[in-house]
Design a protein that fits this description.
The protein is α+β, with helices and mostly antiparallel strands and 421 residues long. Helix content is 26%, strand content 25%. Strands 5-2-6-1-7-8-9 form a seven-stranded mixed beta sheet, with helices on both faces.
Length: 421
């Protein structure tokens, strides 16, 4: 009787699993845990199709270990910030069909050596260095057994979805160790065995460390990472070329760097599934994220740039009389989401017509060059690098905010002032 009940229970668990729920295990040290502060834009909208399984209890936001949540930051641990997994998942759901969900199951500790994820070596490593920060994190969040927590939560995830891959980012604590690839291979093979997975179905994606030209001190480890496909044939290397560091330490990426790396993990995962993925810097955002990084309007002699983070902004006005004005020097943030550049020096005369050329790097790390035709009195036509929208008409209020269903009033439509009656 008990055998029949067990078989019935097992069949029910399998039946519950959704083949269109793609799950990815993530592990490593601080760059996987996340080290950059997220911005308002990062958490303002996350597609609910991107889920995280809490691998420990969180107090803020309140999360319970073993439960699924929409993947707002932080998604790895209560100590974590923006990291590798965030824009991996966001990019995956943007690229995959609408009926596919993506989930991440992440266990990571800042400063952790790779041995802490070895099911046989972790205990001796913990005993050797019980007071290290990574040891404290392992004990506080994962019961001192990070590998087992990853396996336990992986099994929990298999009740709802299908494990499609494993993401690893670790290296600075084993910088240049020639034995690192074989240690990773052991962990990978143990995960496959303990979760009843096949290597051909579950590739391993290994990210490079911060490069020397971007301020990294563990760049030598990338020579070791490069050996992974020779050691694990179903592994792929994720390049960190051009991904900026945070400028304050030699180990961690900036927020832009994490977003770039997350996208690259996703591009590699999509390619491994035989799906085409654009290898450019553009991130396909949902429509209601479009306004995060475009110049929206000029109204009352003010230029509104609707963006949460701006890097290397240049903004030059060129007028029909030949003179130029540097508008970036007058730029000020009016809130966390809007940058306003004043046209206060301009006079409302016909001579003050011309163009504004804006060059800036948005919060995704993508550089834009936008040319805007200006008139000191009237709103302007705008040429912007907007992602394609499914909406035939997009109305904005005079502050540049997208209004999905405008009521009566004055709005900007395709750069022109319109009245909705």
């Amino acid at each position: 009787m008990s055998c029949i009940m067990a078989a019935t229970s097992f069949s029910y668990a399998i039946a519950e699993a959704d083949p269109n729920f793609y799950v990815y295990l993530c592990f490593g040290q601080s760059n996987m845990e996340g080290n950059a502060q997220w911005s308002t834009a990062d958490n303002q909208y996350v597609d609910p199709r991107f889920q995280m399984l809490a691998t420990t209890d969180f107090s803020s936001p309140k999360r319970v270990m073993g439960e699924w949540y929409t993947a707002n930051c932080p998604i790895v641990s209560p100590m974590g910030k923006l990291g590798m997994a965030d824009y991996f998942g966001r990019t995956m759901v943007a690229a995959l069909p609408a009926d596919v969900k993506v989930g991440v199951v992440a266990v990571a500790m800042g400063g952790s050596p790779i041995e802490m994820f070895d099911k046989y070596k972790y205990s001796s490593k913990l005993a050797q260095s019980p007071n290290e920060w990574w040891a404290t994190l392992a004990k506080n969040y994962y019961g001192g057994k990070p590998y087992q927590r990853l396996v336990d939560m992986g099994k929990k995830a298999q009740e709802k979805g299908v494990i499609k891959g494993i993401l690893l980012h670790q290296g600075c604590s084993n910088n240049g160790d020639p034995n690192w690839p074989s240690m990773v291979k052991t962990i990978y093979n143990d995960l496959l065995k303990d979760l009843n997975l096949k290597a051909a179905d579950v590739p391993l994606f290994v990210g490079e460390t911060l490069r020397q030209e971007n301020g990294g001190s563990c760049y030598a480890h990338n020579n070791v990472v490069a050996q992974m496909p020779n050691t694990v044939p179903t592994s792929y290397v994720v390049s960190s070329k051009g991904c900026p560091g945070n400028g304050s330490d030699p180990w961690h990426f900036s927020a832009v760097g994490y977003r770039m790396m997350g996208r690259r993990y996703a591009y590699q995962a999509l390619e491994a599934m035989g799906l085409e993925a654009k290898k450019d810097s553009a991130y396909t955002m949902p429509n209601n994220l479009n306004n995060f990084y475009t110049i929206k309007s000029i109204e009352n002699k003010d230029l509104t740039i609707n963006v949460n983070e701006i890097h290397d902004l240049t903004l030059m006005a060129t007028f029909v009389d030949g003179h130029k004005e540097d508008l970036a020097s007058e730029a000020t943030f009016s809130s966390s989401d809007f940058l306003i550049t004043s046209f206060g020096r301009m006079k409302a005369t016909s001579e003050k017509k011309g163009t504004v050329t804006a060059v800036f790097t948005d919060f995704m790390g993508t550089q834009h060059t936008i040319t805007i035709n200006i008139n000191a009195i009237d709103p302007v036509s705008i040429e912007s690098p907007q992602v394609d929208s499914n909406e035939e008409k997009e109305y904005y209020d005079l502050n540049g905010r997208l209004i999905p269903n405008p009521s009566k009033g004055i709005y900007i439509l395709k750069g022109e002032k319109v009245v909705v009656k």
